[in-house]
Structure formats: C-alpha cells, structure tokens
C-alpha cells in the first residue's frame, strides 16, 4: 500500500477517536458536514450529468478532505498539557531540522544520498533536482512545501522568543529564516521577507538601539533590494517554470484547470481527469472540486478552528493569515503531514500564553509570603 495513503488512513482513525473522546467545536461540526456533502454531491452530479463512469472517480482523493473535516470540530483548548515537554519536543524537532538543512546547504553527500534513496515527492526526479541546487527541502521534497513548514517552525520560535525573551529561541528563528532563504523560490523569498519584518518590528518596539540604528539600515537595504534586486532573485520571480508565473500565467500548469472553472458552473468533486492539475494551489483545487461553496467552507472552518483553539486572538488571526498565504502555492490543508502537525502547532502556541502567566505567579506568591512574615514579626 502507498505510504501516504496508509498515513492518511491512520490519521483519520486517530482523529475519529480524538473527536469522540473530547469536546467539540459545535460551530465547526456543521462546516465539517457541509464539506463532505459538497464534495460528494459534486461528484454525483458531475458523474450523472457528464455520463462519466465510476472508474473515473478517485476515491483516494477524498481521504484528505475527510481527515480535514474530522480535525475541524475537535477542541484542544480544555486539555491539559505539560508545556515543558511540548517545548523540549519542539526544540528537538526544530534543531534537527536546522542541522539537516544546513548539512544539505553545505553539500553533505551522505545526507543528500539518504534523502534521494528514502524520500520522494510529486515525480521521481523532484527530490534529486532540489538537492542538486542545494535546497534544504529535508523530508518535504519540494521547496514550496518545505518553505511553508519552515515558516511555521520560524513563527513558533518567534512567538516563543516574544513570550519568554529566550535568545536561543531567537537564534532558532533566524536559523529557520536562513533555511527558507536557501530554498530559493518565490514563496520562500516572500516568507523570508515577512519573517525579517516580524523580527525587525518587534526589536524596534522593544529595544531603543534598533530604533536609532536599525531603521536607517533597514531603509538602505530596502531601497537596494527594491530598486536593484539580485539576479538570482530576479530570475526566480521571472521564471515561467515555477512560482506565480508557472502556476497562474496563460501558459502555466493551471491554464486548463482555470479555463474549466471559468466556463463551467459544475464542480468535478472527486472526478479525475488528466486535464486538471490538482496541486500547487489550494484555492483552485478546492474551487475545482466544490466551487465557491467548498472554498468558503474550508477557509471559514479554518478561521473558526484557529479562533476556538488559540486563546490569543492576535496569534489565532495571524496563523489563519499565514495558512491563507500557504494555500496560494500548495493545498497545505489537505496535505497529510500538515494535518498531523497542525494540532501540535495550535496546542503549542496556545500554551505559550499559559506559561507566561505561570512564570509570573510564583513571584507574586513569594512576595505575599514575605509580607505576611514581616507583618507577623
């Protein structure tokens, strides 16, 4: 059996168990049911009206949507977690990812050979092509997918730095940005810019030195890169083989898919055709399979998932926007690895708020005891 398919089966079983044993987000139960109805009804209507045979229905493509619809109603808020363990686990994952990525950037033959022999993505040559250009795609195979995962790791390290003032977390966040820069793609350069802006704005707000020195330096660098970008960056953004032009131009991979969407009101559901390109854009894939109703259901459900499971509204809204950006370059919400890591991301970010409170609490208690002892004496 295909490993991805097996992985998705296991994920569906685990999500089903978790959904039954824990409290649910009632608002998202309706959205989850709606996603399944839209997808299955679109499949039925397209098959009947186009006289298509059942053999053209790709039932395997239904599994990621089923897994997503099972994830949406789950409430992780009321479950108690040991944040110290969560943080150590995150640090271990992030450190390992950074070390492996740096080894690839610096052309470690054995690391590259390991990934070529044991990992694949898309088409057989994709991983080897990525590694040939020293792109640290690690276990993700594609620079588009890797840049999204690396940015999530960056954002978690960045938020950890903000809440705990840990310089080590800031170092990890900068290392994540270094890996993103070396992926050398449109999405990675955009995410790199966003990451640099986030860190810079925070440092300017918190430290006077960066207000005096950082702002002029940032202005100079911004002017240089806006008016005279490097040839490498220019070639990436102008390439018609990948990036936005490779996807959305008249000659892009989505040309036939967009043509179908603009000339047909009926979505295809789970129906398969070689004319349709069903990766590299969540918005187009969801629209193709379930029209605007599917797009609305998926992103409204995502919004409520974030708002329900992350108590800090600013972080919840930011994470929602981040995923909306991811979806421009790849349908991450139906990618089995993202479905596995997303609960951990929400749980970790939500518990950052709690650890800030608990770290302050002992100081107040000890101060109260000191006052009582002085009063007693």
Describe it.
With 377 residues, the chain is mostly helical. It folds into two domains: 180 residues, no CATH class; 163 residues, no CATH class. Helix 2 packs antiparallel against helix 14, helix 7 packs parallel to helix 16 and helix 14 packs antiparallel against helix 15. The termini are far apart.
List keywords for this structure.
16 helices; 377 residues; mainly alpha; 2 domains
Total helical segments? 16
Number of distinct beta strands = 0
User: Which term fits the overall shape?
Assistant: globular
Please report which band the strand proportion falls in: under 5%, 5-15%, 15-25%, 25-35%, 35-45% or over 45%: under 5%
Helix content: over 70%
- Distance separating the two termini: 75 Å
Helix/sheet category: mainly alpha
Taken together, the total number of domains comes to 2
Order of helices and strands: HHHHHHHHHHHHHHHH
Give the biggest sheet: none
Mean pLDDT: 82
**Poorly predicted segments:** 357-372
- What does the radius of gyration come to? 23 Å
What can be said about this structure in brief?
The protein is built from 16 helices and no strands.
In terms of topology, how is this protein built?
Elements: H1 3-21, H2 26-49, H3 62-71, H4 83-105, H5 109-118, H6 126-132, H7 143-164, H8 167-182, H9 186-206, H10 208-227, H11 231-238, H12 243-248, H13 255-263, H14 282-309, H15 313-329, H16 336-376
Helix pairs in contact: 1-3, 2-3, 2-14, 4-8, 7-8, 7-9, 7-16, 8-9, 9-10, 13-14, 14-15
């Amino acid at each position: 059996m295909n490993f991805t398919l097996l992985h998705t089966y296991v994920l569906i079983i685990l999500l089903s168990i978790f959904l039954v044993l824990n409290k649910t987000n009632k608002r998202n139960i309706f959205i989850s049911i709606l996603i399944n109805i839209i997808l299955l009804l679109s499949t039925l209507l397209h098959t009947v009206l186009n006289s298509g045979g059942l053999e053209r229905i790709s039932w395997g493509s239904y599994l990621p949507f089923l897994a997503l619809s099972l994830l949406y109603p789950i409430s992780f808020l009321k479950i108690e977690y040991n944040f110290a363990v969560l943080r150590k686990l995150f640090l271990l994952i992030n450190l390992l990812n950074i070390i492996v990525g740096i080894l690839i950037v610096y052309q470690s033959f054995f690391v590259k050979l390991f990934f070529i022999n044991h990992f694949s993505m898309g088409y057989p040559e994709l991983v080897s092509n990525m590694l040939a250009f020293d792109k640290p795609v690690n276990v993700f195979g594609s620079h588009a997918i890797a840049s999204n995962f690396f940015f999530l790791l960056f954002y978690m390290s960045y938020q950890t730095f903000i809440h705990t003032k840990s310089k080590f977390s800031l170092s990890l966040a900068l290392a994540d940005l270094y890996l993103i820069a070396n992926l050398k793609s449109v999405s990675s350069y955009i995410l790199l810019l966003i990451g640099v802006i986030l860190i810079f704005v925070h440092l300017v707000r918190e430290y006077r030195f960066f207000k005096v020195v950082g702002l002029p330096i940032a202005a100079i660098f911004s002017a240089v890169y806006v008016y005279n970008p490097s040839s490498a960056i220019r070639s990436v953004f102008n390439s018609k083989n990948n990036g936005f032009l490779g996807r959305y131009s008249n000659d892009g991979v989505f040309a036939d898919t967009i043509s179908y969407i603009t000339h047909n009101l009926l979505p295809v559901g789970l129906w398969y055709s070689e004319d349709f390109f069903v990766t590299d854009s969540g918005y187009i894939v969801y629209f193709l399979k379930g029209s605007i109703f599917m797009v609305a259901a998926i992103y409204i459900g995502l919004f409520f998932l974030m708002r329900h499971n992350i108590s800090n509204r600013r972080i919840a809204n930011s994470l929602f926007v981040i995923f909306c950006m991811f979806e421009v370059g790849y349908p991450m919400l139906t990618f089995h690895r993202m479905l596995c890591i997303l609960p951990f991301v929400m749980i970790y970010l939500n518990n950052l708020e709690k650890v800030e409170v608990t770290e302050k609490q002992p100081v107040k208690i000890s101060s109260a005891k000191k006052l009582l002892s002085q009063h007693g004496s």
